[in-house]
Amino acid sequence: MSFSRTLKDKSITVWEDGYNHPFLHEMGNGTLDQEVFKFYLLQDYTYLIEYAKIFAMGAVKAADEKLMTNFTVIQHAILYEEMDLHRNYMNEFGITLDENHTVKPSLFNKAYTSNMMSVAQTGGVAEIIAVIFPCAWTYYDYATRLKEQYRDSLEGNFYQTWIENYASDEFRDSFEWFYDTLDALCEHKTEQELEAIEDIFRRSVEFEYLFWDMAYNRQLSYL
Ligand SMILES: Cc1ncc(CN)c(N)n1
Predict the structure, then answer these.
(1) Is 139's C-beta closer than 6 angstroms to any atom of ligand 1?
(2) How far apart are CA 70 and CA 13, in angstroms?
(3) Which protein residue's CA is at the shortest distance from atom 3 of ligand 1?
């Protein structure tokens, strides 16, 4: 198995804790309190703005135009497709964009995006891919598993669009290049450097788990 593909197994405990979080299963069976989802949606919107900036950092640090294009294509998809999913749900809740723009990121949300930005500023392209990889990979993995596990109750579920969006082939294909690109960038790295990449990846998986938990508890600050 290539280095990039082993990263999930190296974070498997927290990866599975993420999948087992009640937030996800209540989305799967449609019972998640819509106020909880609304909290998530608004926090995630502010998260995605910061997340999109990390792809811009990747484009700045990319060594060639192919890689620059890969980063900017995803950045565009986040801003115009993924955030459309959020804007559509916000519409259903009657939340306007102006109202949405007054939302402040929670303490934890800020910690997560600050960590991503710090890695992007201090690291190279391999570190940038490592820090964003779990954001795409966990969402695809969790959504495909939810789609399968709750296939009998998906139709008409309020969260069906969310699940099908992240379980889609288009979403998977958008980040497929992360694997080979990270492997190529890591080919000549020392053991110590590879461990640092693993730590960056695992930290983001942990942040992903805690983002579900923060949203489930509607936790804006440490209290
Ligand atoms: C917190 C978080 N992580 C990842 C994703 C998927 N791009 C997301 N929308 N939000």
Answers:
(1) yes
(2) 30
(3) 135
C-alpha neighbours within 13 Å on the C-beta side of residue 59: 14
- Report residue 218 as tokens: 């509607």
- Write out the catalytic residue numbers: 135, 208
- What is the residue whose two structure tokens read 């009640």? 22
C-beta 108 within 6 A of ligand 1: no
**Residue given tokens 């890969």 in the structure block:** 70
Is the CB of residue 37 below 6 angstroms from any atom belonging to ligand 1? no
Say how many Å lie between the CA of residue 139 and the centre of ligand 1: 7
Q: Looking at residue 223, what is its pLDDT?
A: 59
Burial of 102 (0-12, 13-18, 19+ CB in 10 A): exposed
State the pLDDT at residue 222: 78
Residue whose structure tokens are 């497929």: 176
Residue stretches of the chain with pLDDT short of 70:
223
Amino acid identity at 106: S
Gyration radius of the chain over CA positions: 17
ipTM of the complex: 0.99
| 20/39 Cα distance (integer angstroms) | 20
Q: Which structural domains are found in the chain, ordered by start?
A: 9-216 (1.20.910.10)
Contact 117, 127 (CB under 8 A): no
